[in-house]
Design a protein that fits this description.
Layout (H helix, E strand, L loop, with lengths): L9 E3 L2 E3 L23 E5 L4 E2 L5 E2 L8 E5 L6 E6 L4 E4 L14 E3 L8 E5 L5 E5 L9 E3 L17 E3 L11 E5 L4 E8 L6 E4 L2 E3 L8 E5 L8 E4 L4 E8 L4 E8 L16 E4 L2 E6 L2 E5 L8 E7 L2 E6 L4 E5 L16 E4 L8 E5 L5 E5 L10 E4 L11 E4 L8 E3 L11 E4 L4 E6 L6 E6 L6 E4 L10 E6 L5 E10 L5 E10 L10 E4 L1 H4 L5 H13 L2 H4 L3 E3 L24 H12 L4 E7 L16 H10 L4 E5 L7 H21 L6 E4 L18 E3 L17 H8 L11 E3 L32 H13 L4 E3 L24 H7 L2 H7 L8 E2 L15 E7 L5 E7 L5 E3 L2 E2 L10 E6 L4 E6 L1 E2 L2 E3 L4 E8 L20 E3 L12 E4 L2 E4 L1
Parallel strand pairs: 15-21, 34-40, 41-42, 41-48, 42-43, 43-44, 44-45, 45-46, 46-47
Antiparallel strand pairs: 1-2, 3-14, 4-5, 6-7, 7-8, 7-10, 8-9, 10-11, 12-13, 15-18, 16-17, 16-19, 20-21, 22-23, 22-33, 23-24, 25-26, 26-27, 27-28, 29-30, 31-32, 35-38, 36-39, 37-38, 39-40, 49-50, 50-51, 51-58, 52-57, 53-56, 54-55, 54-58, 59-60, 60-61
Helix pairs in contact: 2-4, 5-6, 8-9, 8-10
């Protein structure tokens, strides 16, 4: 945390001299002539340039100058600035006015000749610094005018200048002041640090970093990238983000490929290697390029030592090696290149990776100790247009950026494994890559589906398949026929599994222990939570699974010894389930494990390699759901999760044969390796698509708040559907700033304590967006008669913690029906209708639309900002509905209903408000082709809003014979 300066009250001649100082700046009292100032600071602008001794820019740590601040007694928030490094007072020539200029600042030996500066704190925590004119403060700010370069050379002697912008647009006017000689605690974060990875910071080693920030390091100076070393293999690299303003470091481990054990290994992980415009293949005696992925060679990578790999061309049967670590020239034969091939492993040498982006790496000789952008790396040096062979060239060259592409992975930018209940309404959206077009679909044995093109020029511009799923259970297949921009024909097969025994046809609804209890869970506490769920009507609303997160087991690192902690669960997990069933027979138990050596808390063993044994154990206890984390990983995500997914599939076959409910598998690798592309194939029915959610409105990538999480998922709608959902993580409704891990927000930076929390409007927005996105809904608040801070001790709790507003939000049957709609769609982000298009922005508004059963459409509009915003009318044709047709418009939160035609008028949205509408066409024909059965036509059966059959005594909004009933 930045050392925020406190006001010093000076007693002078028994009088209190009231000199107001800016919060964050500690003024010194000892004049330089009498000794060293008490508080010294470095000055850095928002472009990460520091002042050196002449106040010119530097990024060299040894050149950072130190400054002390002395209060100017006659003016508020004003200071004399002393350059401790240069032993000079920082001055300027006072005038009636100033223009933008370089070299404005002067240096003087005596304080009497020094000038006064006004320093104001900005909302970001940074400062603006202004000089005074002869009559008052000037509307101009210290800045290296004209930027860093010829006018302000790095490590030069041109002093600070002036610029008219206070930092609103020009980061050069935003100054961060950091106190020197003070130990700062940096919190370390990581989602999914591999078990064999090590982070070294200034010589101190760390393993097992997690998303909770349980580990930290104390240092005096800002941490630089050069202070950090990450040792990791397994095809991983680490993206390191240093936040010196908030003293946090985030390590994002990205796996670019899965290594193969040997060229003879039974399980092989082949890849094609792609640079921006070509692939590698061996042709004759040369390693050349091809522009066809199907013609490219397949490579496996064999890890020789941590982070060093042999590259083996499986297609050609040879190793790729280098003969000289130097940039090559334009060569057309491999014999003259620095990169060659051999069948002799003893001749081969190893390669290493250097991250260029989250998708691309440079492939660098393994003998290089500290790679840089100038290090020679894989490159068709001289260019593919010149038929150059594979050689070496600078890593920072655009043609040195390589991707490892799994040829078995679907190339389609949408789901290709789909699910449906027998005879259910069905939709499959097919947005394509640029230049590609779906031309037709071969449906094979399926006669109830059709391809439609009425959305190709509207909204997100795609074709889609809709109709009803086959009535018989089984696995079906249809083939998509596409053409690309060059006219090539492409085919992609889609598997459609039709079953009455799907894990989770609609999103799971649960209560999880983590954000409130963390490790402090027990039988008795869970029973009291269950009583709260019953008391507040949350079980009836659908929240029917209590999930035991990390630390339910006896602490050990022995996977074979995994069992429950008898001190926490004296009657075992099965005993807990019996107790919960005694409260409400609908209640189920979920449990937690990890696809690694240990769980994220490093508390209990993970399940990697013990999948079947651990799952059998959970099943024997009566557990019905698994949340499966990815800390301390021992293999790649797809491998790790597929192993557990296979065990779950086998268990569910057994359960179906016995007439038991399916076991639910939730993948939790935080979206780091795009589980929406492979999670269903790995056996999951939902997958976390974000880092752990925090009780915050915006947040950031590693600690997302409500909108931060939504931003990361809002363009993944084409991967969601029945039994395959993007998981936005636990909701923070009802925590009221008093949770444990959920309090570790971008602005709070520690577990527990007291934070502002979500307002009622923000809580309703979270509920609205989670439901629009078809995310699993997980509560995590304290519902007991007497709340207690479990993961947040020593904080006074209101009683009850949960409010009437929280309950009204969580039990709103109409918004829940949107989440549980049987069509299973995630809302589409309508970017053209929105103004909040920048991720993590706190301004603008966002429009989402979600297809519902029976041709209905849910529409939500969210105000991202903390001031009211006016939203223009939305043309119904822009959200896939029809012109000149009348629609019933149900305003969910306002509980009103109206009739609209052609436009939807959201009007004014209050701060952080989300309005949600359900639009139902009054005419019998619906907007969604092939899905034209109205609820009114379903005879004397009663249905809920999502289109599912319900009992006559159903509580909530239901329809029978076309008549709505609300109980």
């Amino acid at each position: 945390m930045t050392h925020y300066l406190r006001l010093l009250s000076l007693v002078v001649s028994a009088m209190l001299l009231a000199v107001k100082a800016v919060a964050g700046i500690k003024v010194s009292q000892t004049l330089p002539s009498a000794g060293k100032p008490e508080h010294c600071y470095t000055m850095m602008n928002a472009n990460n340039y520091y002042c050196n001794a002449t106040t010119s820019p530097t990024q060299t740590k040894d050149n950072y100058a130190q400054f002390a601040f002395y209060a100017a007694s006659d003016k508020a928030n004003t200071y004399y600035i002393y350059n401790v490094t240069a032993s000079k007072w920082v001055s300027y020539d006072q005038a009636d006015s100033y223009s933008a200029q370089t070299g404005f600042v002067k240096m003087t030996d005596n304080k009497v000749d020094a000038a006064v500066y006004k320093i104001s704190e900005l909302s970001t925590g940074a400062y603006e610094i202004q000089p005074y004119t002869t009559t008052g403060v000037a509307a101009i700010y210290l800045n290296w005018y004209k930027g860093i370069g010829n006018d302000n050379p790095v490590n030069g002697n041109v002093t600070l200048g002036l610029w008219t912008d206070n930092g609103t647009k020009d980061k050069g006017s935003n100054w961060t002041l950091k106190e020197v000689g003070v130990q700062q605690k940096y919190t370390l974060f990581s989602d999914g640090m591999p078990s064999d990875a090590t982070v070294i910071i200034n010589g101190q080693s760390f393993t097992g970093l997690n998303a909770q920030g349980d580990q930290s390091i104390n240092v005096e100076e800002d941490i630089q990238t050069s202070d950090i070393t990450v040792k990791v293999g397994g095809g991983y690299l680490a993206k390191v983000t240093i936040d010196n303003a908030n003293y946090q470091i985030d390590f994002k481990f990205i796996q670019y490929f899965t290594p193969t054990a040997s060229i003879d290994a039974e399980k092989q992980y082949p890849y094609i290697l792609k640079m921006p415009s070509a692939y590698i293949k061996k042709s004759g005696d040369n390693l050349v390029h091809t522009t066809s992925a199907s013609d490219a060679d397949r490579f496996v990578l064999i890890e020789a030592e941590q982070g060093k790999y042999y590259i083996y061309d499986r297609t050609a049967g040879c190793y790729i090696y280098y003969t000289n670590v130097a940039n090559g020239s334009n060569q057309t034969t491999t014999a003259n290149s620095n990169v060659k091939y051999t069948t002799d492993k003893a001749t081969a040498n190893t390669w290493q990776l250097m991250m260029l982006s989250e998708e691309t790496v440079a492939i660098i000789p393994g003998s290089v100790e500290s790679p840089t952008g100038n290090t020679p790396s894989f490159n068709f040096t001289g260019g593919i247009d010149n038929n150059a062979v594979l050689n070496l060239y600078n890593a920072n060259d655009r043609n040195s950026a390589w991707q490892f592409i799994d040829p078995s992975k679907t190339p389609m930018p949408f789901a290709t494994l789909m699910y449906a209940l027998p005879g259910a309404q069905y939709i499959h959206k097919l947005p394509t890559k640029t230049g590609e077009t779906v031309t037709s679909v071969d449906f094979g044995a399926i006669s109830t589906l059709a391809l439609h093109d009425d959305r190709v020029a509207i909204g997100n511009k795609y074709k889609y398949i809709s109709g009803t799923a086959p009535a018989e259970e089984g696995e079906y297949e249809y083939t998509l026929n596409l053409t690309n921009e060059t006219g090539d024909e492409i085919q992609s097969k889609v598997r459609l599994i039709v079953s009455n025994h799907l894990q989770s046809p609609t999103p799971m609804m649960a209560w999880l222990t983590w954000n409130w209890f963390a490790r402090a869970i027990s039988h008795d506490k869970m029973v009291e939570i269950a009583k709260g769920l019953e008391k507040y009507g949350l079980i009836e609303a659908g929240f029917n699974t209590i999930v035991l997160d990390d630390a339910w087991a006896s602490p050990t690192n022995d996977k074979a010894a995994l069992t429950y902690d008898p001190a926490k669960f004296p009657n075992g997990i099965s005993g807990l389930k019996t107790a919960l069933k005694g409260i409400n027979n609908k209640l189920k138990v979920g449990i937690y494990s990890d696809a690694g050596s240990m769980t994220c808390e490093n508390y209990q063993p993970g399940s990697y390699g013990y999948e079947a044994a651990h799952l059998a154990l959970f099943d024997s206890w009566g557990v019905d759901m698994l949340k499966y984390d990815y800390c301390n990983s021992q293999a790649g995500t797809k491998v790790s999760y597929t192993q557990m997914g296979n065990a779950v599939a086998k268990l569910n076959e057994e359960r179906q044969a016995k007439g038991e409910i399916p076991f639910v598998f939730n993948i939790c690798e935080w979206g780091k390796t795009k589980p929406w592309e492979w999670g269903a194939e790995a056996g999951g029915s939902s997958w976390r698509a974000t880092s752990d959610a925090r009780e915050d409105w915006i947040g950031n990538n590693s600690r997302p708040g409500v909108l931060g999480g939504v931003d990361e998922v809002r363009k993944l709608w084409m991967y969601a559907g029945v039994n395959r959902f993007n998981d936005l993580d636990m909701m923070c409704i009802g925590l009221h700033g008093l949770g444990g891990p959920s309090n570790n927000t971008a602005g709070h930076q520690s577990n527990g304590g007291k934070i502002t929390g979500l307002t009622d409007a923000q809580a309703r927005s979270q509920m609205s967006l989670w439901c629009m996105f078809a995310s699993p809904l997980a509560l995590t608040c304290d519902l007991r008669e007497t709340p207690k801070g479990e993961a947040n001790a020593n904080v006074q709790m209101p009683n009850p913690l949960i409010t009437d507003a929280d309950i009204a939000t969580l039990t709103n049957t109409e918004v829940l029906a949107i989440n549980q709609d049987a069509l299973g769609q995630q809302a589409e982000y309508m970017e053209a209708l929105s103004t909040g298009t920048s991720n993590y922005s706190n301004t603008g508004y966002d429009v989402y639309v979600k297809d519902l059963t029976n041709g209905r459409m849910a529409v939500s509009v969210t105000n991202r900002g903390t001031t009211a915003v006016s939203v223009p009318d939305i043309q119904l044709t822009s959200i896939y509905l029809k012109a000149d047709n009348k629609y019933t418009c149900r305003n969910i939160w306002a509980n009103t209903e109206s009739e609209i035609e052609n436009t939807l008028s959201p009007g004014t949205l209050q701060p952080c408000e989300t309005k949600v509408y359900v639009l139902t066409e009054k005419a019998p024909v619906t907007s969604l082709s092939g899905v034209n059965t109205s609820l009114a036509s379903k005879g004397s059966t009663r249905y809920d809003i999502s289109g599912r059959k319900v009992a006559e005594d159903y509580k909530g909004l239901s329809i029978k014979d076309g008549q709505k009933t609300l109980k």
